[in-house]
Specification:
By secondary structure, this protein is of the alpha/beta class. The chain contains eleven helices and nine strands. The longest helix is centred in the middle third of the chain and has 18 residues, at 91-108. Bound molecules: ligand PBG and zinc ion (ZN).
Length: 276
């Protein structure tokens, strides 16, 4: 992805401090561990790469709102978002590891944990674990409505997290299905999600709008890697006015009802908005 890089702890600390000064007041972290294993131990290690980055950013830029993506797929050797046995992803056994991951991120200093594995019950399991550790002030931004999308392609290549076998359709959602989206959001809301996220954003604007109308918590929309890559590629070919297309795209997500937008364009958008 042009303009997007895997950063070391030192680099991410510098990058986030500059982003903060430029007006980006929150970040979400994804980890790429040195080694991956069956049980995703890098996801919940005390000295895991995300845990180190959280501590380092907190020290350098204390007022940055730090979010951590809570999933196992970047850390598992098989690339699935949960525990795998005999070729099956095991929902309930994955909950414990996801809760451990969220706890270690919160203990490192994350303000928000963002479970993205799409395991049933993950929000409830994380809420209970955080509350037991007296971390009830840590917010949960639930990837409540996450479609099994081809738009995650560039991310998976960057994080080397494509599933080694099968796909994610057993736990991510079926693109033509809108009603299931509400069932998923209902469950996460009931389990204590503080923010509900819809992902991807631009090809699911109808879902953002419905979630906005139906729930009284902030709604987030994730403008994912493939959505970013489409604009970048056309711009590099000189086929579109990148800045205008970017702003129009982000505006459509906002208009659909998103209170929070996660986008690889954050720094460029802030710059463009300052001019506008
Ligand atoms: C982890 C996760 C993914 C993304 C965010 N969290 C990858 C996936 O589900 O395969 C995708 C982000 C993007 O494409 O920008 N589950
Ligand atoms: Zn995952």
């Amino acid at each position: 992805m042009p303009g997007v890089f895997n950063l070391s702890v030192d680099e991410v600390t510098k990058e986030t401090s500059q982003a903060f000064d430029a007006g980006v007041k929150s970040v979400i972290l994804f980890g790429l561990p040195e080694t991956k294993d069956e049980l995703a131990s890098g996801a919940y290690a005390d000295d895991g790469v995300v845990q180190q980055a959280i501590r380092s950013i907190r020290k350098a830029t204390p007022d940055m709102l730090i979010m951590a993506d809570t999933c196992l797929c970047e850390y598992t050797s098989h690339g699935h978002c949960g525990v795998v046995r005999e070729g099956e992803v095991l929902n309930d056994e994955s909950l414990e590891l996801l809760a451990r991951t969220a706890l270690s991120q919160a203990e490192a200093g994350a303000d928000v944990v963002a479970p993205s594995a799409m395991m049933d019950g993950q929000v409830g399991a994380i809420r209970e674990t955080l509350d037991d550790a007296r971390l009830e002030n840590i917010a949960i931004m639930a990837y409540a409505v996450k479609y099994a999308s081809a738009f995650y392609g560039p991310f998976r290549e960057a994080a080397d997290s494509a599933p080694a076998f099968g796909d994610r359709r057993a736990y991510q959602m079926d693109p033509p299905n809108a009603r299931e989206a509400m069932r998923e959001a209902d469950l996460d809301y009931a389990e204590g999600a503080d923010i509900l996220m819809v992902k991807p954003a631009t090809v699911y604007l109808d879902i953002i709008k419905t979630v906005r109308d139906r729930f009284d918590v902030p709604v987030a929309a994730y403008h994912v890697s493939g959505e970013y890559a489409l604009i970048k590629a056309a711009a590099q070919k000189g086929w579109i006015d990148e800045e205008r297309v970017m702003l129009e795209t982000l505006t459509s997500i906002k208009r659909a009802g998103a209170d929070i937008i996660l986008t690889y364009y954050a720094r460029e958008a802030i710059k463009a908005l300052a001019k506008a």
